[in-house]
Design brief:
45% of the residues lie in helices and 13% in strands. By secondary structure, the chain is α/β, with parallel strands linked by helices.
Length: 182
């Protein structure tokens, strides 16, 4: 784990700083589809599942990180610290706080279910389906909800979620530039 602490900044403070220093590095680590749906004006897309932390190591200035609410931004900041980036800064409350504050955004009009909700929908569906199959088809199919439940416990304990990484790469989570519009 990184030994340095991860700083945070409010959306309002970042806008004030950005207005005085327009060359700040501000990245959004959500999926391309989430980014297209709505993002802080000027933020650059760097999806967490594709984030190349080493590409920021030569940078001496802070890297400001946004996601939906702060969880993925914190994971990205940890990844940057581990790669040797000196100063990752998480934007408190992420894009949700940015939008709620009425700060400048860019929108595509495309509606996307946030990645964390997609993961919960998928996990819940698999648990329900596995339990139903175990009750109606064969008791050994109880392995499905047991596997999914174990995965959720693993995710909660470690902060890692392989299922979310897979869902992030699905066609509906890619940007429209790949021709994958929903």
């Amino acid at each position: 784990m990184p030994t340095a602490t991860i700083e945070q900044i409010s959306a309002h403070d970042l806008v004030a700083l950005w207005n005085s220093e327009p060359d700040l590095t501000v990245i959004d680590v959500r999926t391309a589809a989430e980014y297209e749906s709505v993002h802080a004006q000027g933020a650059k897309l760097q999806p967490l599942h594709d984030l190349s932390a080493h590409s920021f190591t030569r940078q001496q200035k802070p890297v400001y990180i946004l996601c939906k609410s702060g969880v993925r931004a914190t994971q990205a900041a940890e990844k940057l610290l581990e790669a040797g980036v000196n100063h990752p800064v998480v934007v408190e409350g992420g894009t949700d706080a940015w939008v709620a504050a009425g700060l400048p955004v860019e929108r595509s009009g495309r509606k996307v279910i946030p990645l964390d909700r997609q993961m919960r929908i998928f996990a819940g569906a698999m648990i329900c389906l596995g339990a139903l199959l175990a009750l109606t088809v064969h008791p050994l199919l109880a392995v499905i909800p047991l596997f999914m439940g174990g995965g959720l416990v693993f995710s909660g304990v470690t902060g890692l979620c392989p299922m979310t990484d897979v869902i992030a790469k699905m066609p509906w989570n890619r940007g429209s530039s790949c021709g994958c519009r929903s």
